Amino acid sequence: MKSSLSSRLSEVAELTGKALKEYLSRYRDEDFPVLWEAMDYATAEGGKRIRPFLVLEFCRMFGGNDAAALPFACAVEAVHSYSLVHDDLPCMDNDLIRRGKPSCHAKFGEAAALLCGDALLTAAFEIVASAPGLHAEARLEGVRILAECSGAAGMVGGQQIDLIGEKEKLSYERLLKMNMLKTGALIRASCLLGCVAAGAGEKERAAAGLFADRLGLAFQLTDDLLDYGTEDDKTTYLTYLSLDEARKMAKSLLDEAAAAVADFDKDGILREFCGYIANRDK
């Protein structure tokens, strides 16, 4: 029998997948069919939909409903998918495989993949701006949060530091900043967008922000542990920490994340999620 967390992850993955496919279907056009095919391919099943899960669970935890949160969840997943498409491009990581299948540019070509990423990013803001069931102020705040966390002050800035780290050793402080931005910023957006969808107050949002910051660092740290020995020329946590130190740091961060939401997480799903991150296998 699936655990409650496993069931919830599967539920959100299915819910988000269907809704996002429906949102993106509006871009199907017989005059440029490859663009929609690439967008659909890049957002298809394969990922765990962790960020949409956080959007919906934070909204649920603070008394909101799925209908309000789902557009935000789809938008975050669209941004995440765009980032993976662009990360795989030859000018970036030059990866030919993504989630066990050809990466977007390997299947559709570099130019189509570039446009696919562009289209997914802009679609995300259209989805947030036109979200039904939310007042204009909530949609506007959603746009601001997503823009801040996905742009130069967030994920894109972190990716730029990551590229620098492929050519030169990053200081530990710069490494932390990279991870807070590249990995942590979109996780932070997910948690805060769930709060916005629920109409949560400042105390709740502060708890969500602390949870997200700790989870984002721990997420990247566990990635580095899983990738140990495969990225010798790249600055990671294991450039500065032993395996034992890294494991202890990851546990401490996840304990802090769980503690941040303990007063609100009545069914324990987010605390269980922290354990899932600690023990994940990618």
List keywords for this structure.
globular; single chain; two-stranded antiparallel ribbon
What does this protein look like?
There is one protein chain. The chain has 282 residues and is mainly alpha-helical. It has 13 helices and two strands. The chain has helices at 4-24, 33-42, 50-61, 66-87, 104-108, 110-129, 136-150, 155-165, 172-182, 184-198, 202-226, 243-261, 269-278; strands spanning 97-98, 101-102. It has a two-stranded antiparallel ribbon. Strand 1 and strand 2 form a beta hairpin. Helix 3 packs parallel to helix 10 and helix 7 (136-150) packs antiparallel against helix 10 (184-198). It starts with a helix and ends with a helix.
- Quaternary state reads single chain
Helix content: 55-70%
Report the sheet-strand fraction: under 5%
Number of DSSP helices? 13
The major sheet is characterized as:
2 strands, antiparallel
Number of strands: 2
Low-confidence stretches: none
Task: Map the helices and strands.
Elements: H1 4-24, H2 33-42, H3 50-61, H4 66-87, E1 97-98, E2 101-102, H5 104-108, H6 110-129, H7 136-150, H8 155-165, H9 172-182, H10 184-198, H11 202-226, H12 243-261, H13 269-278
Antiparallel strand pairs: 1-2
